[in-house]
Design a protein that fits this description.
The chain is α/β, with parallel strands linked by helices and about 325 residues long.
């Protein structure tokens, strides 16, 4: 019997890698009776939840019609719909069910990956800075966004109530909980694909910037007059990202954030992992550590002054 697999993210849990695999390895998946529904040659269906979030129902219905056509034309027994934006706030699940009637017409499996909140916040923050969408410190970012992200109990209850007939698979985005310590192998195992050859697995995609790159992007943003995202791409095209990734949060900051979500995590553990002592392992947070800055304060001051001087020179030249 044909069944749907709805992959809803969450963000920063390897969704792009899953979608890239669905597109690049379509022939391999077809041999295992699996098919991703695509929009204009892309296995990500993000345009639908984005339209729902901004209230553009006409465009959402248009995109939904294309997805329904893809479902109708699929020949595999396991049909995959993937969009990490489906787990974002602002997606009305009642509207989603109306726009995609196949979600209630066919047997539905919902797959969601959860990342420990301190690691999610660090990765999501890096991504926002990388795209030039945020320029403040991570402490400010967490205060501004912690109620929008990370409450996994609230997220799961929305989907449990929105699609009570569905079977929900909750996976933890941690190497120790992933099959072969790999997101591609883990997701495919749920679909019945027991082995994915290593050479078929996608290389890291949509990687977060290193500490050094992150600091340079901050300084570019602070200097003003620069297209931060464009300059980052120009640097990476010339030398890649040669920096390293350390923790942006100290152990104390990370513990405080995990305490903020403790009740939510415990509720998820009780429903989905009752045999485990905790939803996430946090032994690494017992030892006191400090956050990494990428460059020293003096180095940052020199680089910032140079960028400001260049920006001023460009203004005068214009």
């Amino acid at each position: 019997m044909t069944q749907l697999w709805l992959h809803i993210g969450t963000q920063k849990t390897g969704s792009t890698a899953i979608q890239h695999f669905g597109q690049a390895q379509a022939a391999f998946l077809a041999r295992h009776d699996v098919q991703f529904v695509k929009l204009v040659r892309r296995s990500s269906l993000n345009r639908l939840p984005k339209a729902l979030r901004r209230g553009d129902l006409d465009f959402a219905r248009h995109v939904g019609g294309l997805i329904e056509e893809g479902i109708a034309q699929a020949t595999a027994r396991n049909i995959v719909l993937s969009s990490e934006m489906l787990s974002a706030n602002g997606v009305d699940l009642a509207q989603l069910a109306q726009i995609l009637p196949s979600l209630t017409r066919l047997p539905l499996n919902i797959v969601v990956y959860l990342r420990r909140q301190d690691r999610f916040m660090e990765s999501h923050y890096r991504q926002r800075v990388k795209n030039g969408r945020y320029g403040g410190p991570i402490s400010s970012y967490i205060k501004e966004t912690r109620d929008a992200y990370g409450d996994y109990d609230r997220l799961l209850r929305r989907w449990e109530e929105g699609f009570p007939q569905a079977r929900i698979y909750v996976r933890r985005f941690e190497k120790g909980h992933l099959k072969d310590e790999d997101i591609i192998s883990d997701f495919n195992a749920l679909l019945g694909v027991s082995h994915v050859p290593h050479e078929l697995r996608a290389a890291p995609i949509n990687a977060s910037p290193s500490d050094e790159m992150l600091t340079m992007l901050h300084l570019l943003k602070a200097a003003g007059g620069y297209d931060v995202a464009r300059l980052r791409k120009a640097v990476e095209a010339r030398c890649g990202d040669l920096g390293r990734q350390a923790r942006l949060l100290s152990a104390a900051q990370a513990r405080a954030l995990m305490d903020y979500y403790a009740a939510s995590n415990e509720a998820v553990r009780q429903r989905y992992f009752p045999k485990d002592e905790a939803l996430f392992e946090t032994d690494d947070l017992r030892q006191e550590t400090s956050a990494d800055q990428g460059f020293t304060a003096d180095q940052q001051a020199m680089i910032g002054a140079l960028l400001a001087a260049i920006a001023e020179a460009h203004v005068r030249a214009a």
